[in-house]
Structures are given as structure tokens and as C-alpha cells.
Design goal:
The protein has eight helices and five strands. It has a five-stranded mixed β-sheet with strand order 1-2-3-4-5. Helix 1 runs antiparallel to helix 2, helix 1 crosses helix 3 and helix 2 crosses helix 3. The chain folds into two domains: 114 residues, no CATH class; 102 residues, Trna Endonuclease, Chain: A, domain 1 (3-Layer(aba) Sandwich), CATH 3.40.1350. By secondary structure, the protein is an alpha+beta fold.
Length: 247
């Protein structure tokens, strides 16, 4: 499936949530509609209210408890999306939404089909702790006084120990972004992220976006290893099985 434009993706999300209602929320792993609006909206770089408005606009066309925008006609571009996708079944529609939210989704989908993995419970977590929180930071970093007039460099795909580098002349900060569904929870650093935080000290910042369930709220912590946070080291012993053949 090809990636769609942000506006069409937002419209499709509204249509999906309107048509399938609670089934759609559960399929994506959310606890309620507010969390769905917040996470889906920030994940694609649009306002959560836009997702809700599109859902409400489609509500009069489906059998759900809400009345929606029953007193106004459907906007033309929404009408075109409705005509194109209104007959798509639940499973196909769910896969369409996921494919426009998760990086390399067709590959993961293929692996899941071979190994029979179930990602139904992890989709929301991946969105909240990853894409949604990162997009929230992209939208709001300039409002942070310490980052005023800094240029943002995206490192989210580089696996380099931080998500963003902010630069202004010879000054810089490296920022690792984490997300939590509720108001509290646990943030985890990989070994590489911890090493970066340890070496960069005050030039390293942890940006945590909490409470996607109600209202996303950011907290910025410089030099997190020297903050009130207490990181506990966890080591896991993994038995790896391999198969060899002489050639």
C-alpha cells in the first residue's frame, strides 16, 4: 500500500473511527477516543481535533451512537473519500490505517504472517513512544526557550543514541524523545542512548511527552542521568539458536 497525503490519511482515520467506532479503537490498542485522536493526530503531523472533526463529519452516514454533523452537508473532498472507501471491510481498513502509521509496515506485516506474531497490543505503544511523541516535539520545540533560533536535524532513523540534534553556530543539543500513554510510567534508554547521555551531559536532553490518553504534556530534562530520575541497569541473558550447514 502506498503512503497517502497527510490530509487524506486524516480523513481516512476519521472515516475509519466513524464507521467501526469501538472496534477501530480496540484494533489500534487505544483506551478511548481521546487517546486515538491525540496519538493518530500527532503521529501524522496534524491536530488531534482534525481527526475528531473528520469522524464527526462522517457520523451521520453510519450506525453509531453519535449524531455528528447532521445539519451540514459533507464536504466535497470528504465525499470523494467516502465514495472510494465506504465499502472497505474492517480488516482491510485496519491494515490500511496501520500502513500509513508504521514505518516499513509491509515488511513487518510479512514477518508477522510468517512467524504468526500478534502486534494488536503493541501498535498504540509504538505510536505513543515513537512517531506521535516525535511529531509533538517537531511541532513544539521552538516554544522551548533554550532551543530558540536553533536548527532542527532529524536523527530518528539513524539509531545514533538520540532522535534530534539542534544546532546554532557552535552550540548544539541532542534530544531523545520518549512518550507515555498516561501521566506516569517508565522510560527506557538503550545502551547507546545511555552512553550518549553520559558523554554529552548538559548537551543531552530527555523530552518526555506524557498523557496521550487525555492531553499530551511535555517535560524537558537536561542531563537526565544527573537529574531526579534514577536509571536502573537491566541485563538480559539471551540464548540464541542457530543452524549451520557445510557448503
Amino acid at each position: 500500500m502506498s503512503m497517502l497525503s497527510n490530509r487524506k490519511t486524516a480523513i481516512l482515520m476519521g472515516l475509519y473511527l466513524s464507521k467501526f467506532d469501538e472496534m477501530a479503537i480496540q484494533a489500534l490498542g487505544f483506551k478511548g477516543s481521546v487517546e486515538a485522536f491525540n496519538t493518530l493526530g500527532y503521529a501524522i503531523g496534524t491536530k488531534p481535533a482534525s481527526i475528531k472533526n473528520y469522524r464527526d463529519e462522517f457520523d451521520p452516514y453510519f450506525n453509531n451512537p453519535r449524531k455528528g454533523w447532521h445539519n451540514r452537508p459533507l464536504r466535497e473532498y470528504c465525499k470523494l473519500v467516502l465514495e472510494e472507501y465506504q465499502n472497505v471491510d474492517f480488516n482491510e481498513f485496519t491494515e490500511l490505517i496501520k500502513s500509513n502509521l508504521i514505518e516499513n509496515y509491509p515488511v513487518e506485516q510479512f514477518v508477522d504472517s510468517i512467524l504468526q506474531r500478534d502486534h494488536s497490543e503493541s501498535v498504540a505503544k509504538r505510536l505513543v513512544t515513537g512517531k506521535a511523541a516525535e511529531e509533538f516535539f517537531r511541532e513544539n520545540y521552538l516554544s522551548i526557550p533554550q532551543f530558540e533560533n536553533f536548527t532542527l536535524k532529524d536523527a530518528t532513523l539513524l539509531a545514533c543514541g538520540f532522535d534530534f540534534k539542534l544546532e546554532k553556530e557552535s552550540d548544539y543539543y541532542c534530544v531523545e524523545v520518549k512518550g507515555l500513554q498516561g501521566k506516569s510510567g517508565t522510560v527506557t534508554f538503550t545502551e547507546k542512548e545511555y552512553a550518549m547521555a553520559e558523554k554529552l551531559c548538559d548537551a543531552f536532553a530527555l523530552y518526555v511527552v506524557t498523557n496521550f490518553v487525555e492531553k499530551p504534556t511535555p517535560k524537558l530534562i537536561f542531563n537526565p542521568l544527573k537529574s531526579a530520575l534514577r536509571f536502573m541497569k537491566t541485563e538480559k541473558l539471551i540464548n540464541q539458536i542457530s543452524f549451520s550447514a557445510s557448503f
